[in-house]
Amino acid sequence: KVTVCQARGLLAKDGDTSDPFCEVSAADSKGKAIGKVFKTEVVDKTLTPDWNETFTIAVDAQCAHVSIEVRDKDRFKSQFLGELRLSPAQFANKRSAEGWHALVPRMDKPDKVAQGEIRVKTVFDGPLLGASDDDESAAAHTSDD
């Protein structure tokens, strides 16, 4: 699960403000969405939006990263503000993590300017990387010696 908490320092695309929202999806190695693309609500006229919206993302062998793209909503289209790409390993090493991350340009358009940071929380309910069933069962048993 990925919770998109908030952002700060976003680009102003509408004069001195933006109307930011996020698109959240699993993505392949080229940055193309795999499966459903989830969207947060649009927060009008701010560069410091609070979303606190949680999405369940399926991470499988095709998933190179989870993409959180921040966009500015306009009347007929939206404009890119920045992206966060989380590799499955970043959240499969811990049950949960939370923190601020710098937004970066899109993979297919590295010349597009990105600015700001996004705070996300991840909760992983699959098997942790590097842990085996034997490790977990051995930790559950204690010796009488």
Structure description:
The structure is a single chain. 9% of the residues lie in helices and 41% in strands. The model is unreliable at 132-145 (pLDDT under 50). A hairpin with a 4-residue loop joins strand 5 (65-73) and strand 6. Strands 4-1-8-7 form a 4-stranded antiparallel beta sheet, with no helix packed on it. It has a 4-stranded antiparallel beta sheet with strand order 3-2-5-6. It is mainly β and 145 residues long. It is built from 2 helices and 8 strands.
How does the overall form come out from the CA principal axes?
A: globular
Detail the poorly predicted runs.
132-145
What is the rounded distance between the termini? Answer: 42 Å
As laid out across the biggest beta sheet, the strand order is 4-1-8-7
Rg (C-alpha, Å): 18 Å
Using brief descriptors, characterize the structure shown:
mainly beta, 145 residues, 41% strand, 4-stranded antiparallel sheet, globular, 8 strands
Ordered list of secondary-structure elements with their pairings:
Layout: E1 2-8, E2 20-27, E3 33-39, E4 50-55, E5 65-73, E6 78-86, H1 88-92, E7 96-102, E8 117-123, H2 133-140
Antiparallel strand pairs: 1-4, 1-8, 2-3, 2-5, 5-6, 7-8
Short recap of the structure:
With 145 residues, this protein is mainly beta.
